[in-house]
Every structure is written in C-alpha cells, then in structure tokens.
Amino acid sequence: MNKLFTLLTAVLVLASCQTEKKHFENIVTIDITHFWEAYDKITSTQDPILQYKYLDSLYLQRGTEGLNAIRQVRNYTPEDYIRVINAYPKFWTSIRENTLKIDQFSSELQDGIEKFREIYPELKPAKIYFTIGAFRTGGTTLDSLVLIGSELALTDKSSVSKEFPEEEREDRRTFFDSNPIDNLVLLNIHEYVHTQQKPMVHNMLSLAIYEGVAEFVSVKAMGVPSAAPAIEFGKKNADVVREKFEKEMFYPNNRFKWLWDRGSSNEFGVRDLAYYIGYQMAENHYEKSENKKEAIKKLIELDFNNESEIEEFVESTGFFSSSLEELYQKFDNKRPSVIGIKQFKNNSNNVSPKINQITVEFSEPLNGINTGLDVGPLGKDYLPKISPNNRVFSEDNKSWTINVELEPNKHYQIQLENNFRTNDWIPLKPYLIEFKTGNE
Q: Highest taxon of the source (predicted)?
C-alpha cells in the first residue's frame, strides 16, 4: 500500500508540474535573461566592435520570435541598443531587479487571460513576450504576439530619469512615478485584446476606437479602473476634449497630438487622449446593450475596413455632438483652397511651354512650412520636371511657387496634397493642376 501511495503521489506531482508548465507556456521571458547577459559583457568593454559582437551573439541571435517581432515593429537596430546601453547606465541599474522578477507575474498574467476569456469566450490563442527594447514602446502587438518593452513596462518610482535628454526628462519622470509595473497585467490584457481585433485603419477616428476598445475591454475583464491618465482626464473634461477632437479628427498627420506622444504636444498636457475618445464610445455602447457579452463581442470584432460598420457604431454610441457627416462638413467648410494659378488658367489647353514657374494662390495664408506634391490620376508620365529647389512661399504665405521644365504639346498633371496646412493645422483641400502645352 505504501509503495502504491508513493507511486500515485509521484504521478500526481509529475502531472502537476507538466500542467503548470503548460499553464504558462504562452508567457515568454527568456529575452530578458539574455539581455542582461549581453549587457554585462557590453558594459565590460569600451571597444565598439566587441560591444556589437556581444549584443549580436548574446541577445539578438538568441532572440525569440517576440524579440524579432518587436524589433521589426519598432525598427530597433543594433545601433539603437548600443546607444541606449551606453547612454543610461544608472537607469539600467535601477530597473534590473524589476525585470529579473518578471516570472513572478506569470500566474497573475495567466489569471488575467482567463478573466478575459470569461467575458469573451471566442478568445483566440496568443503569446506574450517580455523583451527589452530601446524606449519606443511599452507594449505593442504583431498578429497573435503581445510584445512588451520591459525597459518601460517594468519601471517604477525608483527608476532613474536624470540621464535622459532634457526634452524627455520630465515626461520620463512622470511616467516612472506612475509605477507602470503595478499595472503590468492590465497593460498585457490591453495588448492581448489587440491580438483579437481586426486590423486597424490609419485614420484618427479608427485608431481612437481601436485603442479605446482595447482599454475598455481590459478594464472590464480585470474589474479595475484604467491606469491611463487620459481616461480620468477625459471623463473630467469630457466636453472640451470631445469638442477639440471633433475639430481635429479629420486632420491628416495630426496623430502626435492624440496618440503615442509624451503629452507635451497638445494643449491639455495629457498623452494619448484618443484612448479616452474610443473608451467612452465603447463604454456608451456597452451600457446601452442589454446583452453585455454580445456588446463585448461587437466591440472586439469591429471591422475597421468596413466604413459603414464603423460609422454605424459611432452614431449608435451618441458620443459626438452631431453626425459624422455634419462634423466632416464643418471641417471641410473651414479648409483653405487653391483659388487660382498665376501663370495660366487651370485646365487650359494652350499653355506656353516656355513658362518655367507655376504659382498657386490660396484662399488664406498657410503656415509657410508644410507642402505636398504628388502625381495626378494619369500617373508619373504626366508629371512635369519639377526642381527640388526654389519651392517657395510668398511673403504673406498666400501663394507658393515651383520651378518647372515644360515641353511643347504635352499633357501635364500635378496633384497638390492636403499636407499643406494653416497655422492651426487645418489642411488644404487637395487640388489637381492640369493643363496642356501648345507649340513653341
């Protein structure tokens, strides 16, 4: 009997170990161990050749699928790693202990995933990789991979900020003082949500929904408040934030004011305020829905390539002050436009090929900095030779001149893009310059 009991105990222990190993197999932390092995060798020498050799052989070549993915997504180069390792020795020392205890979070992370599964039973498998990067993300995704930048995600109040460039230092200090490591599980579930979503479309409204949904769903899964300062600020200042977003969501190339910045790029001084916009829409949708699981499913499975579906979702949330169509019309009515061409009338059929300049005139002054040219619908064969030099705004910024080389009996097109903008970042209405030249 004793032998049988011992055998059964051994079998149970073995089964338990195997179960535990399987339980955490989707959480991979070995890149952190490899980083510190490389770090110790890199910092033991001043020889740059040896430093790159150690980085490559001890970290990059041994990298997991997750390390390779985060390097791809954030364009991390060997030069980036060597630069930050040499520049911030006190910082690296201050976070080393936090990063090396990452395995202690595995159970909490797995519990978080299971809580997510409870509210979204359709959950597809994904892997979480803890890597160390060069300060371009605390967390991102690629397909079914959650990619954590541990050099940011595992910081806390004890992390040293004084070595960073002056223009970054205050923002780094604020971020470290928020104790990101305390919100590690919530961050991971946020990123895990992204692995379940359909691909995002790169316009401001879709990006806001994409990020806001991930934040809202992670909060509902974990049953804790959001750790993102943008959510609290947005709720306390809902009207002014919404009003500002309504004016700017159609602006091109304006993402830095609303997403993934350090907070100093907008008048509110709070980063990632687009998270609040999407979060509030998601919350409105959830609260209005009788079937909460179906509401979560709808949020996660929104198709960002289906414009009508996104528009219908937005309208159903009642978040904006008027319809998207009305908001776009207000935006479009404020846009500057091209009112004419100085040298000839647009769409002329007998323009002199001796003309060597084209000057476009605007309805109001632009900022005198941003410009944008492209080929027209007929393609590059219809674009005249344009000098890369001497593209100048007038003194009052109400016109812009380019130097061109024209040939006789040719059909030309030049597309002015909406990268032209006013001092308030309102973009120019796109304008197609089209004309034909006559004989000599």
A: Bacteria
| Other beta carbons less than 10 A from residue 349's beta carbon | 9
Residues of the chain below pLDDT 50: 1-23
Specify the pLDDT at position 5: 40
Structure tokens at 432: 């197609």
How far are the Cα atoms of 375, 387, 388, 393 from residue 405, in angstroms, in the given order?
15, 8, 12, 19
Domain chopping of the chain, boundaries: 23-165, 197-334, 338-436
Token pair 């190339």 is found at: 253
User: Which tokens hold the place of 162?
Assistant: 């004084």
Burial class (CB in 10 A: 0-12, 13-18, 19+), 109: buried
Count the alpha carbons within 13 Å of 292 in the hemisphere toward its beta carbon.
Answer: 8
Question: Edge-to-edge strands of the sheet including 27-28?
Answer: 27-28, 127-131, 145-149, 139-142
Handedness of CA 395, 399, 402, 405 (dihedral sign): negative
- Amino acid 26: pLDDT: 87
Could you give the CA distance from residue 369 to residue 372 in angstroms, rounded to a whole number?
10
- Output the pLDDT for position 21: 40
> Given 3.90.1150.10, 3.90.1170.40, 2.30.30.50, 2.60.40.1220, which CATH number is that of 338-436?
2.60.40.1220
Q: How far from 434 is each of 310, 353, 404, 421, CA to CA, in Å?
A: 35, 14, 14, 22
Whether 100 contacts 32, CB under 8 Å:
yes
Cα separation, 141 vs 114, whole angstroms: 19
pLDDT at 8: 39
| Residue partners of 77: CB distance under 8 A and separation at least 6 | none
